[in-house]
Design goal:
The chain has helices at residues 30-56, 83-86, 169-172, and strands at 10-11, 18-19, 57-61, 76-80, 94-98, 106-113, 118-122, 125-128, 131-132, 146-150, 155-159, 175-176, 180-189, 195-196. The chain has 212 residues and is of the alpha+beta class. The protein folds into two domains: 10-55; 64-196, Ribbon (Umud Fragment, subunit A), CATH 2.10.109.10. Strands 3, 4, 5, 6, 11, 12, 13 and 14 form an eight-stranded antiparallel β-sheet that branches. It is elongated, with a radius of gyration of 30 Å.
Amino acid sequence: MATAVPTGGVMAVGDGQAAVADDQSEEDDPSLKSLLRETLETVVLAILIFLVIRSLVQNYRIEGQSMEPNFQHGQYLLVNKLAYRLGEYRRGDVIVFHYPNNPSQDYIKRVIGLPGDTVEFQDGVLIVNGLSVEEPYEQVPIARNIEVQTVAPGFLYVLGDNRPASSDTRTWGQLSQEFVIGKAWLAIWPVDRAGLVEHPAIEVVPALELAP
C-alpha cells in the first residue's frame, strides 16, 4: 500500500513506501528564508541608493594639462550633476561636459562667457563685454589676439586655464548647454589637493539679454 509523503519527507525508491525525513530541508528552513530575503532586500536597496547617488554626483579623473595649474593630470573630482538644474551658470564656473565633436569623451573647462556676452582676447588680455577682465584664479595666458564672439542663446564660451595647451571654444566653437554634465564640486584625490572646488566669479559688466 502506498503511503502519502508528509511535507519535508523523502520518497523511498522501489517499494512504494514513504520514509519520513528526520529533519526539514534547508529550503523549508524559516531562518534561511528570512536570511535570503533580508540579503535580497539589502542588495536591492544598495542598488537603488547607488542609482540615486549616481544621478546626483559622478566621479571623474582628469587627463591632460589643459586646466593646470588649478587641476592636475590624474586628479579625481566629484561632479554635481544637479547644479544647473537647480541653479544658474556663472562666469568662472568649472564644468564637465560631453565634448560636442565626440560626446563619448568628457572635457573639463571654465565658463568665461554667458549667453549675450562678447568675448575676445587682445594681446592675451581677456575682454568680456568690451572691458578687460582680471581673472581671479591662476591661469597660463596666451600672447595673441582672438576675434570677438557673441555667445549665442543656450551656449557657453569655455576655456582651459592652461590656455596654450587647451582645446576649447577657440578651436571647436561655443558649447551648447545640452552637453553639460555638471559642476566640479569636490576634489577627492590626491589627498593633498582634496577639498571643495572653488569657483571664483569673473566680475564683468552684464551683457544685453538676447532673445531666445
